[in-house]
Design goal:
Elements (H helix, E strand, L loop, with lengths): L1 E10 L2 E7 L3 E6 L6 H13 L23 E11 L2 E13 L6 E9 L2 E3 L1 H4 L5 E4 L5 H4 L2 H15 L3 H25 L7 H36 L6 E6 L6 H4 L7 H7 L4 H14 L1 H7 L10 E6 L2 E2 H4 L2 H23 L4 E5 L7 H13 L2 E6 L7 H6 L1 E6 L2 E3 L5
The chain binds adenosine-5'-diphosphate (ADP) and magnesium ion.
The site of magnesium ion has 4 residues, from helix 1.
Length: 406
Amino acid sequence: MYLTRLSLTNFRIFSRLELDFPRRVILFHGANAQGKTSVLEAVAFLALFTSFSASTDRQLLNFNLPESDPIKVGRIIGEFVRGGRKNTLEVRLIQEPNGGNDSTRFRKEALLNGVNRRFSELYGQFNAVSFLPQMAKIFEGGPVDRRRYLDEILCQIEPGYSKHLLKYTQAMTRRNALLKRLGEVGGPPDQLDFWDGMLAEHGAYLVRGRIGILGQLEDNARQTHQKLTQGREVFRLEYQPSFDPTQPLLGQIALPGVQHLAEAGKIEAKDIETGFADELRKHRKEDIRRGSTSVGPHRDEIRFLANQVDLGNYGSRGQMRTALLSLKFAEVELMKQRSGEWPVLLLDEVMAELDPIRRGALLGLLDKVEQAFVTTTDLEMFEPDFLAQHKVWKVEQGVVSKEGQT
Ligand SMILES: Nc1ncnc2c1ncn2[C@@H]1O[C@H](COP(=O)(O)OP(=O)(O)O)[C@@H](O)[C@H]1O
Ligand SMILES: [Mg+2]
């Protein structure tokens, strides 16, 4: 798939931006703080409905809008071609007064071809894979960063995943509130039955989705990784679920790696649901004491290993870079396998960090996909051939100019 047009209003530094894109590669260059990353962020937003870097969506609204505007609206509109058909996806970011006081509330909404839709219905319409300098946090950050990484892929390729994720999170909030109340004022614990049922039902899908995707990601990533290290390293992803989801089928087993889970193969969400419900019941007393839910996919962990060495704990910069590249290749391939369409590739300042072998591999991937947006502060990073073949656009103070090209 590829974007044919992007229109931004009050998004970050851009009061207004209208760009028509060709297929293939578009290279944005310019000094720091001119708006390059923000263009990529807007494109990624159409796939994830959240920012790949901001901690809150409010940060995305142009901060130069007059304070006196009671309602502030930011817009990202993307027109894209998928399977030969043109679609328009629009996201609105809205900040408005919250009742009578001075505070404001923020909401976002999205429309596909002019029709308001839930975000859960829109995931997977437009797919993007982004590659950002700060992504080493997949290895170095906490388990929450790794779960988020997986969830973002799953939302894009697994219909229904985002809905289960939302319902799971909502049920968790309600269950935790009830746990706190039971801990503080007491009451019959069987009030938890309803929320346990919800968590087990939706959580089982999350675990099932994660098992399914990790095996495939690993298979795909391993091939790239082997090439990049000339066969010197074997890359592995290890899923460490918070409870053993194969237990009802296979009996208690020591920490299941993803290999093992893939062998369990046929495991269905229904089987996982039963096991998860048992675990919730087992942990009930403890959970009431803690006032929070101690078991479930919100506590899952994923580890990345090269030659059995855990990259999060012992990986060198170079190893992490290689692993990241392998994972990104794997994501792109996985999206293509699942949806039949290449995702749009977003590469933010990544060339500078790569040695010639890795850079060559990445350029190879750029040749495969239908469209890629690449940013750089330094055109010297690129071969003259590459620059001659592709569009090079300059970004300066929130204005994009096409340097002698139309
Ligand atoms: N919400 C916002 N409203 C207006 N300007 C913003 C907003 N957020 C960031 N900026 C500005 O955008 C610029 C950074 O844009 P960015 O896309 O990161 O640049 P680049 O990638 O070219 O270095 C900075 O000048 C920053 O002050
Ligand atoms: Mg940038």
